[in-house]
Amino acid sequence: xxxxxxxNIKGGVGKTSTAVNIAYLAARDGLRTLLWDxxxxxxxxxxxxxxxxxxxxxxxxxxGKRTLDDGIKGTDFDxxxxxxxxxxxxxxxxxxxxxxxxxxxxxxxxxxxxKEYDLVVLDCPPSVSLVSENVLEASxxxxxxxxxxxxxxxxxxQLTRFVADSEGRRPEVVAFFSMADTRKRLHRDVIAAxxxxxxxxxxxxxxxxxxxxxxxxxxxxxxxxxxxxxxxRCYEQLWAEVRPT
Length: 245
Ligand SMILES: Nc1ncnc2c1ncn2[C@@H]1O[C@H](COP(=O)(O)OP(=O)(O)OP(=O)(O)O)[C@@H](O)[C@H]1O
Ligand SMILES: [Mg+2]
Fold this sequence. Notes:
Layout lengths: L1 E5 L8 H14 L4 E5 L5 H5 L9 H6 L5 H4 L1 E2 L5 E4 L8 H6 L7 H6 L8 E5 L6 H9 L2 E6 L3 H16 L6 E9 L4 H9 L6 E8 L2 H4 L1 H4 L3 H4 L4 H13 L3
Parallel strand pairs: 1-5, 1-6, 2-4, 2-5, 6-7, 7-8
Antiparallel strand pairs: 3-4
Helix pairs in contact: 1-13
Bound molecules: adenosine-5'-triphosphate (ATP) and magnesium ion (MG).
């Protein structure tokens, strides 16, 4: 079982769009896939048309009262399951803090599912928190969408240091540019100038495309409702690049 998290300290950069499309493409490729929505906003849950309901709330999960198995739902797509989020996840940090080993709860919750899934995708909330430390412990890869702007690179630098300084397991960091507008000179300059020594930077650039915004109207992954679109092709290319071998 491979675990890939879409993560960034910054909000609104394309984490959820990427998680949803990548999870769909993985399942379409035949991988038994679970997407775990870890964000109290519940956007991934909404996009897969699942009710935002975690039985007993996040606290029942991190305290060990309930297992993930209790809460996992099917989606409209073969091989693709969803662990929904609900608003109780806003307290996940506090819930984690009151457990004995607060940084490895997510990894432990996933452990019993090793034989059931080939891939787990974690859709993370934008923050640096105990939830993020759990995500580092649990993940093989952090897939990091970056909007090509100077401040994004600064935050990315903080992110790579956060991973490097983490005491537990360190996932591989794979960044990629998201919502890029290559007509903008600044975007082109930032894409050309990103330091490529601290982390892997994927070749694929996801442009800013209205088809991707339409996911919220259609409540489905782009390759499901617009399989021949440029947006679908871009995510296919990204998936081919980052797909665990
Ligand atoms: N490549 C893109 N082109 C155009 N719009 C995009 C693109 N990627 C994401 N969006 C839109 O930008 C908004 C934020 O995207 P998304 O929810 O994927 O980001 P996020 O990083 O998960 O945000 P949050 O930090 O709030 O969880 C959404 O309205 C989404 O439809
Ligand atoms: Mg999100």
